[in-house]
Amino acid sequence: MARTNYSAHISDEKKASVVQLAKLIESTPIIAIANMESLPARNLASMRTKLRGKVHIIMAKKNVIKKAIETSKKPGIQELIKSLHGTPALLFTAENPFSLFKTLKKNQSKAPIKAGQIAPHDLVVPAGPTSFPPGPIIGELGQLGIKAGIDQGKVVIKQDAVLAKAGTVVSDKAAGFLARMGVEPMRIGLNLVIAYEDGKLLDGKILDIDEDKFKADLNAAALAAKSLAFNIAYALPSNITDLVQKAHYDAAGLALEANLLTDENAKQVLAKAYFQAMGVAKYLPADMQAEIGANMAVASTATEHAAPAEKKEEKKEEDAAAGLGSLFG
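-> structure tokens emitted (329 positions)
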């Protein structure tokens, strides 16, 4: 009996979709995959409007997207196939992947979590007063592990309570209470899973950058680098003045410590020697201390008499200079 070969029939519509996607993949520098699972149609329409002219969004079945990617000759782009989860869509843009992620994230909206969904992070009910009057709610809170009391006729949550850990399935009771408390942990919008640019794949987690923290980290790194350059005496246009000043102060301190006389430290060196001599003198016999004291008194008197003479001499020199100036004026 002859064997009959069967081949899957691919409609002309699917073939056209594959060709269209393949052309966009080849002609667009940035290709990203987004997961649109649980994204309401009205939110998608709003996103399309906001992103028009910047991002081209195409929804297609996984098999169609897979075949279009497989036809591409771009290096490494085949790896995108591994990220076709949920309800995938292809995003085509010329925008930087980080800028694209920021744009998508900015256009997301908050929403309450539903029972059975995965908690995106620890879901916490904060401590504090509520709008609930006393009643069955106390029992419900107890079942959820929430410590509560009554204050001024209202239910008060005594301490923060985690109703669901990140990555766990949210129960029906937890989802209901979080909604009543106005906690909206979910984000509705295009969830960028991965992006492709110049042969490189960028995971959505890498693209999710806290700009304020990033700027603070850059400033901290710049300050640390500046401090390191100064401490190892690595000369740069930005620190050369500080380094020269430090070298000057270090040299002055070394000269003073070594008792090396200079025009700048002569008084300090002599003062240091004087106090050191005084420190030694107090251990000398009384008659020698008296003799030293007498000699110092004589020296002090001589200095006082010499000072006016020096001033007069300086005055004469100034007058002479003034006279010469008038001759050549």
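The chain has eleven helices and twelve strands.
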